[in-house]
Hints:
Elements: H1 7-10, E1 14-18, H2 27-37, E2 43-47, E3 53-54, E4 57-58, E5 72-75, H3 82-92, E6 96-99, H4 109-124, E7 128-130, E8 136-139, E9 146-149, E10 157-164, H5 167-180, E11 184-189, H6 198-206, E12 213-218, H7 224-234, E13 240-244, H8 258-262, H9 267-276, E14 279-280, H10 284-296, E15 304-309, H11 312-324, E16 328-329, H12 334-341, E17 354-355, H13 362-374, E18 380-385, H14 393-404, E19 411-415, H15 419-429, E20 435-436, H16 439-457, H17 470-482, H18 490-499, E21 507-510, H19 516-523, E22 527-532, E23 545-549, H20 552-567, E24 577-582, E25 588-597, E26 601-608, H21 613-616, E27 619-623, H22 628-636, H23 641-645, H24 655-671, E28 675-685, E29 693-694, E30 697-701, H25 703-709
Parallel strand pairs: 1-2, 1-5, 5-6, 6-7, 10-11, 10-12, 12-13, 13-14, 15-16, 15-17, 15-18, 18-19, 19-20
Antiparallel strand pairs: 3-4, 8-9, 8-11, 21-24, 22-23, 22-24, 25-26, 25-28, 26-27, 28-29, 28-30
Helix pairs in contact: 3-4, 6-7, 7-9, 10-16, 11-16, 13-14, 14-15, 17-18, 17-25, 22-24
Amino acid sequence: MSTASLDGLFRPRxxxxxxxxxxxxxxxxxxLRNLLIYEFEGMVFPVNPKAxxxxxxxxxxxxxxxxxxxxxxxxxxxxxxxxxTLEECGLKGVKGVxxxxxxxxxxxxxxxxxxxxxxxxxxxxxxxxxxxNCMGIINAQADVRLNGTFAPGTPVRGGIxxxxxxxxxxxxxxxxxxxxxxxxxxFASMGNxxxxxxxxxxxxxxQDDATxxxxxxxxxxxxxxxxxxxxRRMTRSKPIIAVKSGRTEAGAAAAASHTGxxxxxxxxxxxxxxxxxxxxxxxxxxxxxxxxxxxxxxLPAGRRVAVLTDAGGPAIMATDAIGAAGLEMATLSDATRxxxxxxxxxxxxxxxxxxxxGQAAGPDYLRxxxxxxxxxxxxxxxxxxxxxxxHDPVEVVEAIVAGARGxxxxxxxxxMAPDDVMDEVKRTHGFELPVYEFPESAVKxxxxxxxxGAMISREAGTxxxxxxDRDAAAAVFxxxxxxGRRDLTLAESCCVLxxxxxxxxxxxxxxxxxxxxxxxxxxxxxxxAKITSPDILHxxxxxxxxxxxxxxxxxxxxxxxxxxxxxxxxxxxxxxxxVLQEMREGAQExxxxxxxxxxxxxxxxxxxGGIYVEVLKDVAFRVNPITDRDAADMVRSLRGYPxxxxxxxxxxxxxxxxxxxxxxxxxxxxDFECIEELDVNPFLVGATAAESxxxxxxxxxxxxxxxxDARPANE
Length: 715
């Protein structure tokens, strides 16, 4: 359904509170009271079959008795009456319903059935529904002024759209936003998300001019792929900050690949949010820290930060935090330092951080702040103040606000003052200047602003097209299923990967000792010998790989040693033979991996390869499909990326060849959803694309879905 249909929820001209009550402290009374106190710009109708008047307003026995049209109904009745109430709302022509009542999916089988029947009623009548089991909605914009929640307090009007999947968290978040002076455009407690989803709200707020920033408290993703499409588009113009609960690592003991072992429960969420340009906060407090900066200040052009302070100790804390956050301390020009020193104590420091000493007051901040803003080497400023007894801290903050007003560079304030002073400052100036209690919070906000600015300034990227042989790969998968297996042999994995453009060295499979000589002639020395068995997942762990074989004598010893060690494994594995492979030296070992997440689909992994992948854990994940920009970002985010550029006399390698391999594997798993796990390890990245190739490959599939997507395209 069109997001325009959400107007009935967020822009109603009339509201009925069904279940309005005269009892103090009840949800029905608090909801009705909040609508009145917030001065809703429309008509309000209490509905209660046992009351004639509620809060001095005429009450109606049913929504059907209301003589005027009703756009929005907020339902606060016992669970057993919700379905009948929804039916009456549909007959009345109500456009939107907010079901506060609980007792649905969250309580088990009976509730699931009740929720499904509620959804059927809503859709049959063309209504939109938020909830059930939620705390309500808010539109704080001046032409609506809708507070359809039972939360205490008065929402502050502003530019933040906020959605919460938890009602209890929603109440706490609204209170916290009010205490920080952060203003809302709209708010929604999603509850069970039976009809209106988080994705629906994002699309609605994307089109709302009053909403400049979106905050999200998430417990789950309903449709991650649709979220990706919306968020990638939306974050180009409006920041999104998310707190996602459930970060605990899940066990990966069943994983058969390096990639599967490294893809913990929270990896997919991190990858998805990063790809979409969504800023992830570790806590509600961090989310508000970031929001204060993004909603009130311009974005920095770079990562160079100047600190203006009256106290050396907190300035050192700020300096440490700036370095830890990947930001830089700005180097001030000689002209700026000279201008700063003119008027400060001779003992003051005019290097960065600029320490004006304890006697600094409002006029000092008002004079020095513009000088720092004018310096071309400064991208952002932290104004840090620890109030001594002789100055009014509120006056100093007002001077900082005045000095920052109209600036094209962000200014954030750190005020290390008592709680009552902080509360006053946040309420009076929080809408114009971010004010933090500690330097680390201010730096975290600036870091988020720098990341967001860099994200929207870069190209979005494209998913490239490749000439691939899908039918060849499909035939391999079909054969594996017919053979009753999930794991492809090395030869089969190589066949699939080669069909999608990955190159492998010359190789030969040897199944008998007599075949060694002819295979060696075809491959050439030096070579590598490795066991091939569907039951041996990691060859090096059982001594199943021998490298640097220089002649036939070494080859025979390697062959017999590999077979002997493999045959000693318990339980005895199925051994298909030994693969002889052309040896490549001087290249950087990398890995390309895939692990299927049940909610997000395939996760692609890039990282330093070899036998120590799970030890080093220098990897990056993205949700499939990836763009060329994603591939480049994955590679450059690795701690070991300098190895690819060339260090300590080593020549740089062809990074483009590795990125191409990531994109080709992305295309492969897009075409075949049956792939559960995949490792190309190592992928050797050489000096040129021609010298870059895969050395080993391993693929595991889900036989149940092979018939759906592995059938040759011409059938």
